[in-house]
Amino acid sequence: MRIWVDADACPKVIKEILYRAAVRIQNQLILVANQPLTVPRSQYIETRQVAAGFDVADNYIVQQCQVGDLVVTADIPLAAEVLEKGADALNPRGELYIRETIRQKLTMRDFMDEMRGTAVMTGGGPPPLNQTDRREFANALDRFLNN
Fold this sequence. Notes:
- This protein is an alpha/beta fold.
- 44% of the residues lie in helices and 16% in strands.
- The longest helix is centred in the last third of the chain and has 16 residues, at 102-117.
- The model has no long low-confidence stretch (mean pLDDT 88).
């Protein structure tokens, strides 16, 4: 099993949890981004820089991940694609995406995008990560890795 990270938007504190976990369990962690990343030196941690562009990193992760891999992403369409491929997906807030509800999440995401596009609703994305979110992510990651 490899852990793939949609690293362009992944919060630093989540990456740090992932670095420690990869070394602790001696598991391959691969961070994919369209910019250079600085990561701790470890045989278990590597980066893949892809070309800039819309969904280039996402497409790379989908192409490379395999059944049994874990993908860490807040991107619901990416999560849906990796679930369809047989990999698992975990949100940086600790939510493990599941096949039974991913279509519902995609529909809600598209609806919210449409609302923002019509100016009926303004505002950005989710609030910043807090201590509870970090703990939820660490606990969800541990549960996943120990199964």
